[in-house]
């Protein structure tokens, strides 16, 4: 059995919108539009999409905060809303904008309280806390009231709080939003370590694609509440035709642009001393060999395709049958 299952999961909101100077009309906003997805134990899934795509709404349905309008979700075999209390013992949730810590208490006391809330055996609690203290460098601010923590420190506290009861699934909504480079690295390193251990399933929404590149082998992209891509980052690159580039620095300048089979020349820079080729079917070795016969090579480098660029292209591509987000209500 998959640890997360969604079958035709759908969520609509009824909103009132202005329709003229004094009139207001009811409209239905389709936030999640029939998602079918399975996540297996130990997977690390990046769940991304443009603003308003339906990411947070999906996570809220999976964590029992929101009731689906239609379809069905199961997390750890449980129905999130109907079995919310049981589910809470088996999942951890970190929502970047919200806190599960006690504002006036030092972190250490929040952690102690959580042990009682979740009825965690003292030995398990102590072992998990020791691990988090080491990996997330908590010791410096363990005795500081949460209200005095910086965002990065608080986020490290939130991650710890979400893990102390040993959840099987961890849902993270924008865990690195607003963090400085060092805190981001700490959080990513910690999550990567958690993923490597293999017993926690991770679902992560983020607008920071470096999070995804660092952490997730599987990428689910949603737009207008529908899945528009489900697969690896490499699959995304090949689907959108993004290829690696080879940049060759030459000692001299060629009189004619070189033609290399399987590696078209995409641009010439530095007054002809730098040539950039796209690797279509040729290998780097073939490009080097082909160029070596024509000019003296000073340096060669490979540029990986830029994920930001691919994702931007994906967001701009209209999904098949993508309807308007707002439909008149009934
Ligand atoms: N409580 C609500 N009432 C009405 N509309 C809502 C509600 N919550 C979300 N929506 C709408 O549902 C759509 C999806 O919102 P959601 O917050 O799930 O998107 P998101 O992908 O998480 O976006 P972001 O990246 O901006 O956080 C949006 O059009 C949003 O305005």
UniProtKB/TrEMBL annotation:
<dbReference type="GO" id="GO:0005524">
    <property type="term" value="F:ATP binding"/>
</dbReference>
<feature type="domain" description="ABC transporter">
    <location>
        <begin position="17"/>
        <end position="249"/>
    </location>
</feature>
<keyword id="KW-0547">Nucleotide-binding</keyword>
<keyword id="KW-0046">Antibiotic resistance</keyword>
<dbReference type="Pfam" id="PF00005">
    <property type="entry name" value="ABC_tran"/>
</dbReference>
<dbReference type="GO" id="GO:0016887">
    <property type="term" value="F:ATP hydrolysis activity"/>
</dbReference>
<dbReference type="InterPro" id="IPR050763">
    <property type="entry name" value="ABC_transporter_ATP-binding"/>
</dbReference>
<dbReference type="InterPro" id="IPR003593">
    <property type="entry name" value="AAA+_ATPase"/>
</dbReference>
<keyword id="KW-0067">ATP-binding</keyword>
<dbReference type="GO" id="GO:0046677">
    <property type="term" value="P:response to antibiotic"/>
</dbReference>
<dbReference type="InterPro" id="IPR027417">
    <property type="entry name" value="P-loop_NTPase"/>
</dbReference>
<keyword id="KW-0813">Transport</keyword>
<dbReference type="GO" id="GO:0005886">
    <property type="term" value="C:plasma membrane"/>
</dbReference>
<dbReference type="InterPro" id="IPR003439">
    <property type="entry name" value="ABC_transporter-like_ATP-bd"/>
</dbReference>
<protein>
    <submittedName>
        <fullName>ABC-2 type transport system ATP-binding protein</fullName>
    </submittedName>
</protein>
